[in-house]
Fold:
Amino acid sequence: MKLHDVDVAVIGAGPAGMAAAIRAREAGAEKVVLMERAEELGGLLHQCVHNGFGLLYFNEDLTGPEYGHRFIEKALDTGVTPLLETMVVRLGEDRQIGAVNTKEGFITFRPKSIVLAMGCRERSRGALNIPGTRPAGVLTAGTAQRYVNVEGFVPGKKVVILGSGDIGMIMARRLTLEGARVEAVVEILPYIGGLIRNEVQCLHDFDIPLFLNHTVTQIHGEERVEAVTVAQVNGNRQPVAGTQRTIACDTLLLSVGLIPENELSIMAGVRLDPVTGGARVDETRQTNIPGVFAGGNVLHVHDLVDNVSWESEMAGESAARFALEGKQKESGKIVVRAGRNIRYVVPQTISGRRDTTLYMRVNEPEETVRIKVGDIMTKGVRAVKPSEMLKIELSAEKLGKLREGTKEITVDCEKRGGK
Amino acid sequence: MSRVETEVLIIGGGIGGAAIARELSRYTADATLVEKGADVGQGITKYSSTIMCQGANVLEFRSEYHNSRLVWAGMPLMEPLCRELDVPFKRIGSLELVENQAGMRHPEKMMRRFKDWHGKYLPSDIEPLQFIDRDTLRAWEPNVDKKYIGAVYDPNIAVNDPVRLTIALVDNAKKNGINVLLETEVLDIKAGTDGFEVWTNNGSIACRYIINAAGEYVGKIAQMVDADDFAMYPVKSYQAVLDKKVGGLINRMVLATGSGMVSPTIHGNLFFGISPGSQRLGKAHDHSTDKKLADTALRHAQELVPAVSAADIINSFVGFIVFRNFEIGWHECTVGVSRWVPRFINASIGFPGICAAPGVAKEMIDILTRQGLRLAENPRFDPYEKAMPDFSDLSDEEKKELIARDPRYGHVVCRCETVTEGEIVEAIRRGARTLDGVKFRCRPGMGRCQGGFCGPRVTRILARELGISEEEVTKKGGESRNLLYKGKELLEAHQ
Structure:
């Protein structure tokens, strides 16, 4: 494959990469290469056989593979060039890409612009430092999902799940449907880590016990997991003495958070936001490196794929424009700060000159609040939760109200009513 | 059930048994090594800190202790040995930090004694210790806490990969004629007048000499013939490995008296831990980490290098050794013929076992000879092994060449450590039979995602190459299967 004249290279062909590549083509980029390490486009969507995808984007309730196939077909229809079974192993500050595959061997090329769409990975047992032995049968929920839905195997029949992230809750249901018994879903926080709809549809509907304010304090078993010790935690997330109990099980699944996969970004000199774990970007999704854009879970972990697609389309469009014009006309100068009960806001900088959507998450659940963006807009919200991303749309007109020379605006989540 | 006859039986495929087997393979010895696990180097060896050549610390290593003498004998042998076997070895040096003037007495005493003993007890090719002042310390290690006023620099300290060394030793021993039996657990031993009858799960073995290098189980094996003229105390410590992205925080191992240590690994990670024997075990063979030790180790590490963060931990495990005497601690070891059973030789090295292993192996030849074993040189002895390709370490040109020769090297299976299918297939060809066997030979699953991505892929390759089903693939042999059921199998069982 000739790669000397690539306009846009998209790294990763999951939902983010596919949406970015399609939009880059639609926005006029001639040669758009979609690089993917797996043997097919679609990324993790293939293993997400449950429904709930596309409710916002397509106004339809689709499964992961169905959602994926719409994008796969569109990518091929719009003339995106897939480069499959190809792993990018190096990314230079000058946008030089180094990749390997079985056919061409080691390849290097320099596209006019790049979209980072590598997604995220799951936090592992090691990262949690769970005490105990090191038997087989401890795995992340997403890995278990791949084993069950793609490879056709069931890891075990008595399962404890630590963490109540979406994949964990979905796997609780999936394993139950496979005939396994999920003994408990254990969550260290006083609230679940995933979406309410998953708590209802995956746990309550299947009578799977959920223990909030609990954690796994010890793993037992030499060769295969034999049991885990579970304990209640206090307000500092420390186990409360006397509350330990041992649950016999053969499998421990972990659903304890996702980490944007930015090792390539770091190689390229992309500056990361310590809170999101993703790049700092402006509203065009450009990073600090000109011509390098990012979208989807590599930028910040989303809860709905629909938002991943939309965000990545922005990155794809900007990358196409950069490839065509050789530079970006205006980039964000105004810093968006996370204020009261706001964990982060993406984009981290904005120009203030065009319609902009702010994506954000709160630190703590709260009811009856308003989201206040500087003094240019407020929006009432009935309830906010860390697991549910908030979107605030700012029109260019509203942004026009910013005083000339504004250096930063702060987004706050304030209590409303009564006080 | 088979019956094997062998002159020398080595029990245990850890670093000790492996080094002894390889040393014996220099001679035309009829020797067999048995290991109960599915792979070698998976017991105490795996829990090693990977730090070696510590013997210049003459306040800890003293001439009256047998294990110190073994370490001193082994130190000059380690680097050439790693070179012969093409196993990574890197001298990083260590800095024992001094916090205040009162603390200076310790390094002064150490340096004085080193001078006295150098060339006398310590081989003269051990490099001398140096004291470095505050400014040099800052320049060398800017991320070490600013409170330290200087350090004793020990240039001898090195890191390697003990499991790879053990694998290479056993591969080399095999090549030179030693019989190796895996998944062969010794169940009982009967001592006869001029030999032993040994029962295993795979049949019986008749032998004339037994070398008991069973590591953690050395006491259990000795008991079988009433040769346990020593007590064993398993003790544990704690070690944690950090993400390679913080691998550059320090360049040398740093430690402080009565505290922990932080060090680079041979593979570019950082790790920290607390001294061996920090905790006596409540029960034998308890390999679990616990929170108290983990918290203490982290606190100690942060005292030395404040930038060490729990958020960068990618894995943690116990440091595990066996003491002969809990009061004396690791200084005592048991290498010698049993007082009561002739030709039954215990080889329990204790700490620091990896570094002492070449010294123990040499000494074992003397012991065997004194016990009547006649050894002639093996004319076909080939000391060399060739490491398998490490794709991530190659230049672009070398990568191209390798992929052109075998396209499977163009298929990256482990993204964190950039391990290719070609390497995994080669590891299996060289004897890996389990997920851990592959992991310890070429590192898939050792990175920051800990196998979340590559686990299913390595499982598939193992099943394909071994001609077994994916459910039969184990993490580390025995009952450690990762996938217990086929899809729908549990549903059918319900009907």
Remarks:
- The mean pLDDT of chain A is 95.
- Residues 305-325 of chain A form the longest helix (21 residues).
